[in-house]
Design goal:
By secondary structure, this protein is α+β, with helices and mostly antiparallel strands. Among the domains are: 3-133, no CATH class; 278-390, Heat Shock Protein 90. It contains 11 helices and 5 strands. The protein has helices spanning 3-25, 28-33, 46-56, 66-82, 91-104, 107-127, 135-215, 221-250, 266-275, 293-313, 353-363; strands at 280-285, 320-327, 330-337, 367-372, 378-385. Strands 1-2-3-5-4 form a 5-stranded mixed beta sheet, covered by helices on one side. Helix 4 (66-82) packs parallel to helix 6 (107-127). The chain is rod-shaped, with a radius of gyration of 45 Å. It starts with a helix and ends in a 5-residue tail after the last strand.
């Protein structure tokens, strides 16, 4: 037996004990002593007590079958009145069962139950052996039954409200979990782009420098040593940037990340590419303004990827120009080289770097142009819109 059924069984026993006590104490002699007419009212006996107990027994199943329990409780009560034992002896069980219907069933069924309970009491009171009662007693009984019914309805509404709150909380929790998953997926995508840009750039530079060191190793050991030192320096830079990017993953978001590269770091990038063997010129036009962090990083990565592709694909002797233009409401960034460019059937050099750059530019509402120049060479150019004066 579950806990609720046990509680109902105890409640049925308490109500039955109270009802039997009222049935035995308020017999014809007691009522006559108080000056009330009895008109042939039957004295309490074992059969009457049994009917009182039967009227209280349905309380045990009041939660599972509340309406059926009310009908089962009203039947012995009507029999008590019909046999002349008087009315009201089992009214306690009737109120409990009416409350149960109101608190566990819908409005229509609970209204029917209230109407039946009122009709059963008023009919028994009017035709019972005690004789007609005053209208004030009718009013009191009606008020009590309606109050019991209202208490049950209030409990049902409160229970429905609490269920709605729980359901809403569950929906919010699911939505929050979905948002968290989406944020994590977006963060993984961002980290993947950052790692690709960092690794592709630095590994390309290291490859070129290592190849140069191999070519001059026997003829010019000093130049080879400088190239190998540059390879070491570039490798350390790559490791530092990768630690800054993925360090947060090792500490669940608590790592102290270093600042991400930005447009102000382009001179160092240009110098690095010069050391790798690609002559690069940097020119800045217009009045510099503070840039949003995302646009600042995207512009840097665009230049980094553009120079990396120039280093890999432009060919020997090629030169590159990096131009940063601060225009009203717009940032224009381009990387041009005068190398061999790409084949006629290609729209951009192989690899995924420029694809990632296209995603970055699109993310911030920019326009990206990638392709060969009319006079030869290759261009990577992006225009980022700046809002609110940025």
């Amino acid at each position: 037996m579950d806990r609720s059924r046990l509680h109902d069984a105890v409640l049925a026993g308490v109500v039955a004990a109270a009802s039997v006590s009222l049935f035995v104490l308020y017999g014809p002699e007691r009522l006559q002593a108080e000056g009330l007419p009895v008109h042939g009212m039957q004295p309490p006996d074992a059969f009457g007590v049994a009917l009182v107990v039967l009227s209280c027994a349905p309380i045990v199943v009041r939660r599972r079958w509340p309406l059926s329990a009310l009908w089962a409780g009203l039947a012995p009560e009507a029999l008590l009145s019909g046999l002349g034992y008087g009315t009201g002896t089992a009214s306690l069980s009737g109120m409990v069962l009416l409350y149960s219907v109101a608190s566990h069933r819908g409005l229509a069924i609970s209204l029917v139950a209230l109407a039946v309970a009122l009709t059963a009491y008023l009919t028994g009171a009017a035709a019972g052996p005690v004789g007609p009662v005053g209208w004030n007693e009718y009013v009191i009984v009606v008020v009590v039954l309606v109050a019991v019914w209202g208490a049950g309805r209030s409990l049902r509404l409160r229970r429905a409200y609490m269920e709605e709150l729980k359901d809403r909380a569950a929906r919010l929790e699911r939505a929050h979990a979905a948002d968290t998953r989406a944020a994590r997926a977006e963060e993984r995508s961002r980290i993947a782009r950052e790692l690709h840009d960092v690794v592709a750039h630095h590994v390309s530079v290291m490859t070129v420098q290592a190849a140069a060191a191999r070519r001059v190793l026997e003829t010019d050991p000093e130049l080879a040593r400088e190239a190998l030192s540059a390879v070491e320096h570039t490798g350390r830079l790559a490791m530092t940037e990768m630690r800054n990017i993925v360090g947060v993953l090792r500490t669940d978001g608590q790592a102290e990340l270093g600042p991400q590269p930005a447009v102000k770091d382009l001179p160092a990038l240009v110098e690095q590419m010069r050391e790798a063997g690609l002559p690069v010129r940097l020119q800045v036009e217009g009045t510099e303004v503070p840039l949003p962090a995302g646009v600042d990083l995207a512009a840097y990565r665009l230049v980094q990827e553009g120079l990396t592709n120039s280093l890999r694909h432009a060919g020997p002797g090629a030169k590159a120009v990096v131009t940063v233009r601060y225009l009203p409401g717009e940032l224009d960034v381009s990387v041009e080289d005068d190398g061999v460019g790409v084949k006629e059937d290609q729209t951009e050099p192989p690899g995924h770097g420029l694809v990632g750059i296209r995603e970055r530019v699109t993310l911030y509402g920019g326009i990206l142009n990638i392709g060969p120049l009319p006079g030869g060479g290759f261009e990577v150019r992006a225009r980022f819109p700046l809002k609110d004066g940025q």
